[in-house]
């Protein structure tokens, strides 16, 4: 996303954003991307 302030860890993570991957991220964001700012 142009202009979004991603963490370095998120920038370095290589992901194919399919339905499972997105669900894993949304369910456990800090486990999926350690150091992420997302905490819902």
Unreliable spans are none
Separate helix tally: 3
Number of strands: 0
Tell me the helix content: 40-55%
Order of helices and strands: HHH
Strand residue percentage: under 5%
Structural class: mainly alpha
Radius of gyration: 10 Å
Q: End-to-end distance, in Å?
A: 20 Å
**Average of pLDDT:** 84
Give the overall shape: globular
Family: Belongs to the cytochrome c family.
Protein name: Cytochrome c
InterPro entries: Cyt_c-like_dom_sf
GO molecular function, one term: heme binding
Short structural summary:
Belongs to the cytochrome c family. The chain has helices at 8-12, 19-27, 29-32. The chain has 40 residues and is mainly alpha-helical.
Topology:
Blueprint: H1 8-12, H2 19-27, H3 29-32
Salient structural properties:
3 helices, 40 residues, 0% strand, mainly alpha
Description of the molecule:
InterPro entries: Cyt_c-like_dom_sf. Belongs to the cytochrome c family. It comes from Camponotus floridanus. This protein is mainly α and 40 residues long. It has one domain (1-31). The protein has helices at residues 8-12, 19-27, 29-32. It is globular and about 25 Å long.
